[in-house]
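Tutorial sheet, problem 5. The two components below are modelled jointly, 334 residues in total.
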Amino acid sequence: MPFEPLSLRFEKKSFVTKIKDIENHVYFLQKGIVEVGIHKEGDEKIIDFVFAGQFFSSYTSFLLRKPSDVYITCLTECMVEAIPYEILQEAYKVSLLANQFGRIITETAFMERVKREKDFLSKSAEERYLELIERRPEVIQLIPGGRIAKYLGIHPESLSRIRKAIS
Amino acid sequence: MPFEPLSLRFEKKSFVTKIKDIENHVYFLQKGIVEVGIHKEGDEKIIDFVFAGQFFSSYTSFLLRKPSDVYITCLTECMVEAIPYEILQEAYKVSLLANQFGRIITETAFMERVKREKDFLSKSAEERYLELIERRPEVIQLIPGGRIAKYLGIHPESLSRIRKAIS
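Model answer (structure tokens):
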């Protein structure tokens, strides 16, 4: 890529992107855990947790230049690399490599969304919890149970029951 | 693009892609309506309707070369253009234009999945039905109510109630 990404540090509980912000970056998470969610009737619905080594962004806002309807917040201190919108779009006009990069991270993001959607339609909360802790065992230590329950779309008491049943 | 897509015709009710097939194409729908869904406990869950002018594919299967867990079927006679996997991958290695094309259709597909996921989390079935018929008024004539109900994730009787309430 013909450019250097920005290096940024975010405090625990700080926002990378707030609801109604226009997202100006695609981020690569070097260290930490990020939560992506929406607001519904004063409550949060958690859409995703992002772990080190993954790209993230309020990508619809980034692509359409419209206010974000998701928030992105740091569950821990986070180190990220950020690629600004204008620089990426300039590279997309001329660079094969930039377009391969953009295509492949978008393919990955697409497959993650589809997987989550299918899992919601076809798997129980317990199955989805087991998959999550198998894929990312660190969530049990690093993410509060209440937030995992919100991610699974269940009550915290249901998560406690699941945890008891599998232990 | 340095290649000609294939032109294909599918009968009403025929399958473009079956569950467990490895998806070998990205398709562009020239004419007709396509349904994408999964099976769950012997029943179908409809993930998407595709209309003329849109791209479609069992894209995760296409990208990962793994058996599809979705089916793609034609609700009407369909005319499609199809781009084979090998040809697209060859083009991705060398062609700026092919990568721009792949990136942009993947961005579009990503945004559609995210929108549907957020709508499921934040909107009622009635709101989602109203949005669907506003965006695609032809669904009322062309897609059986039972299939629309499955797409919305509600019982056919609930869809009848919604239709009465808004008429």
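Marking note: Chain B has seven helices and eight strands. Full credit if you identified this.
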